[in-house]
């Protein structure tokens, strides 16, 4: 082991136990707010079930998942899966709300029991490059319907930063490596949604890891076009990234990550993996140069986890490495 890596590895190992318990309880993906008629236990338990249904809709990308027989029955056990909750009273005349956060590990077990394909957190954001019928970029206020529709589906859309150079939508749609690398470096994502709104319909392009999918949206006003674009993108992302957790013992595999230049890089990588409920166990095996070989115990095939890592914009595929089932390279 090279001496330059020893301090970083010591820090990494020290972080493992702390990062292992860094649950994503505050992650919006595992939380939902639902109206509450009163604070009686029966009403609260019913609200827990409604909130769990909303969260499962986010995780699976299918809002109708609550209609499945097994899921409908599981909603009755929602109180046992709650991590925390609080009452939220808005302005006068608005309903009392119950904000509920569920235990990510418990939801992973539930998905395994029900054989539900889920895309758990942490999820990378989706850069939304939107323009109106006149070709001008949409403002945050104009793009609000897309942002809200994404939030309802567990997708965090982000708009290009104000004052920053505008992303080249044409180059991104064509999978230009330079444009994709620039977007990844600034927004930490490999996911891009390009929307060109028209007088009646919008043209959409969703880029996942450099691969583009294009479609034409439904007709309607600007709000309807944006909501439809967000819903379709969320569904396609879930189809790509969702996988059913293994019903049996964890799969053991190895991952090599190169390009790690600092202890911060190590900590960010390990923290990302530890927060993924599909990763049951993680152990550093070997350090060499700027790379680290990791042993992983997974609930799903390695490709499902690696797709998420690449979509995060922080990692890209790399040349094969001896002893590793998959090799990735950290992007700065």
Description:
The protein has 332 residues and is α+β, with helices and mostly antiparallel strands. It has helices at 6-20, 41-60, 69-74, 104-114, 144-152, 169-173, 177-187, 222-241, 263-275, 302-311; strands at 31-36, 82-89, 96-102, 126-131, 157-158, 191-197, 202-208, 211-216, 251-258, 279-288, 291-298, 315-317, 326-330. It folds into three domains: 3-23 and 245-330, no CATH class; 28-114, no CATH class; 126-241, Rossmann fold, CATH 3.40.50. Helix content is 36%, strand content 25%. The strands form three sheets. The protein has a five-stranded mixed sheet, with helices on both faces. β2 and β3 form a beta hairpin. α1 (6-20) runs parallel beside α9 (263-275) and α5 (144-152) packs parallel to α8 (222-241). Residues 1-26 have low confidence and may be disordered.
Number of strands: 13
What separation lies between the terminal Cα atoms? 24 Å
Low-confidence stretches: 1-26
Q: What's the alpha carbon Rg, rounded to whole Å?
A: 21 Å
Report helical residue fraction.
25-40%
Instruction: Specify the biggest β-sheet.
Output: 5 strands, mixed
CATH class of the largest domain: Alpha Beta
How many distinct helices? 10
How confident overall, as mean pLDDT? 84
Q: Characterize the overall form.
A: globular
Total discrete domains? 3
Instruction: Give the percentage of residues in beta strands.
Output: 25-35%
In what order do the strands lie side by side in the largest sheet? Answer: 5-4-6-7-8
Class based on secondary structure composition and strand pairing = alpha+beta
CATH fold-type name of the largest domain: Rossmann fold
The CATH architecture of the largest domain would be: 3-Layer(aba) Sandwich
Question: How are helices and strands ordered from N to C?
Answer: HEHHEEHEHEHHEEEHEHEEHEE
